[in-house]
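FORM 7B: Structural annotation worksheet

SECTION A. Query
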Amino acid sequence: MRVAEAILETSGLTKEFRGFVAVDGVDLRVQPGTIHALIGPNGAGKTTCFNLLTKFLQPTRGTIHYKGRDITKLAAADIARLGLVRSFQISAVFPHLTVLENVRLALQRARGGSFDFWRSEKVLHVFDDRARVLLEDVGLTDYINETAVELPYGRKRALEIATTLALDPEMLLLDEPTAGMTHEDVDRTVALIKRIRTNRTILMVEHNLSVVEGLCDTITVLTRGSVLAEGDYATVSKNPEVIAAYLGTPDV
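SECTION B. Predicted structure
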């Protein structure tokens, strides 16, 4: 059976910092329409790899292709315009605007990228209906008039995902979307990611195997900057090298 062409692919992706190799020859293939996790213990190189993919860092060596196009030398803003959009590990919303206003600002991209802070608020109401739909998608309908700073942490992350979805990405990259969350918020966020996957490809950085169980189609495990294992959850969770990387090798 013919394997579908990857939507995102790296070859020999490497990043060195003054002799320290943070990402070492990573070959990654993300299939369209899937949820793909990049996991590993602390210091495995996950976030550095993520920053390379979204061009917040430039690779020392290797190539990155998105939808068959070489994007290795493109800037981060150009990557986003191609439909490859990321969220961040630290929630990035406007704290003193309402939930609706935050999403509405993101939707202004449809007007050519101008934020129009100096114009009448009436100009922005054309985005209200779409903003409300996005907020319903992420479970924030009841918080629509709340100021972002007053939201619980888990709801702030949901708001950030809503603002990211406002850019209508074909591929969404989530940087540790459940970091620092309570168990209840983790469950809510996992359900949210399942809900928004329709017609999208999702690549997420995560360190928690239990989060990706039942959520991700493919899991790539990094350790010390290199790919240790890859496969579905059943495969990687039983891999002795993966178990050792997460739990440590028992004394004998």
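SECTION C. Observations
The two ends are 45 Å apart (CA to CA). The beta strands are 8-17, 20-30, 35-39, 61-66, 69-70, 84-86, 171-175, 201-206, 218-223, 226-231.

SECTION D. Sign-off
Analyst initials: ____
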